[in-house]
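Whiteboard transcription, Tuesday session. T.W. wrote the structure tokens on the left side:
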């Protein structure tokens, strides 16, 4: 079992846009160069060399690259000479989203002061707040919230900023978004609400936050999976000890140990298939029945490749 917020070509295209700007635009000139960090100097030099010949598209490319690189003086220069805070890249994102995603608070402040629309969305629906939440940029999340950003506008696949933060394990960001009215129960287009991503990601702090908002610990999600099942079959990058903390918390909170999903599988079967012996033993200690079979007739012992775990799971 793997959690997933589907991705688009955003990351590759952002890099291409920045590279294109370095080639076709650029920037640096006396006072500008003195004030900006070294990584901005080539952009500024090229901009000063080519600005008389730049098209509106090339100026926008320069603006996106400067926002990504946190070149405050260059962005100021571009905006003063006609660049638009409402310019869009190939994915529909504005400069504010570039700055928020890159973690540049001063750039975010500049763009907002120049009238950047705080809730502008890219083609997938993602806002600057979504990007900042996903990346865990706490100060930027706070600034956008202070400026009235909508906490419930969804991004790719219908995932909300709080879902993106839960998926990425951004505990503090989740807390901030919930405090500002984020809907912690809303499922995305795949049928998973934020708490599912937190459970599958072994994020105990976030699971606790979300369950405290009157979410049923035994609720069913897509394919009849429960939180315990998601926690018992965590994302492959999650250490078993970390996932075990969530499993234990859910069991102690009343999770039903032998509930079945659409395939007839229990949390024990899922843990066995994922080869998680510590989780399987904890489930057994809480009364999980290893004699149960799924709809294909397989028992938990049939699903693991670990011989020692298979022995423990084989009904006597």
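and on the right, the sequence the group agreed on:
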């Amino acid at each position: 079992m793997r959690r997933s917020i589907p991705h688009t070509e955003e990351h590759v295209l952002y890099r291409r846009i920045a590279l294109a700007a370095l080639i076709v635009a650029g920037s640096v000139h006396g006072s500008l160069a003195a004030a900006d960090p070294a990584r901005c100097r080539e952009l500024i030099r090229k901009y000063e060399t080519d600005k008389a010949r730049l098209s509106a598209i090339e100026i926008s490319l320069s603006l996106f690259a400067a926002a990504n690189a946190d070149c405050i003086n260059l962005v100021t220069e571009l905006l003063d000479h006609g660049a638009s805070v409402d310019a869009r890249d190939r994915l529909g994102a504005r400069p504010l989203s570039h700055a928020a995603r890159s973690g540049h608070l001063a750039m975010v402040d500049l763009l907002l002061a120049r009238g950047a629309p705080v809730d502008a969305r890219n083609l997938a629906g993602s806002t600057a707040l979504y990007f900042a939440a996903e990346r865990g940029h706490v100060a930027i999340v706070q600034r956008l919230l202070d400026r009235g950003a909508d906490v419930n506008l969804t991004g790719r696949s219908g995932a909300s900023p709080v879902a993106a933060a839960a998926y990425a394990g951004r505990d503090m960001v989740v807390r901030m978004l919930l405090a500002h009215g984020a809907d912690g129960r809303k499922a995305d287009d795949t049928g998973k609400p934020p708490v599912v991503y937190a459970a599958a990601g072994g994020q105990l702090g976030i699971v606790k936050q979300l369950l405290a908002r009157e979410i049923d610990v035994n609720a069913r999600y897509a394919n009849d999976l429960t939180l315990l099942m998601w926690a018992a079959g965590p994302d492959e990058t999650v250490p078993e000890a970390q996932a075990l903390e969530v499993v234990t918390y859910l069991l102690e909170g009343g999770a039903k140990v032998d509930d079945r999903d659409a395939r007839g599988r229990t949390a024990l079967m899922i843990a066995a298939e994922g080869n998680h012996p510590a989780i399987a033993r904890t489930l057994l200690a809480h009364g999980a029945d290893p004699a149960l079979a799924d709809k294909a007739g397989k028992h938990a012992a049939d699903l693991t490749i670990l011989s020692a775990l298979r022995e423990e799971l084989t009904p006597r």
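Someone added at the bottom: The longest helix spans residues 10-24.
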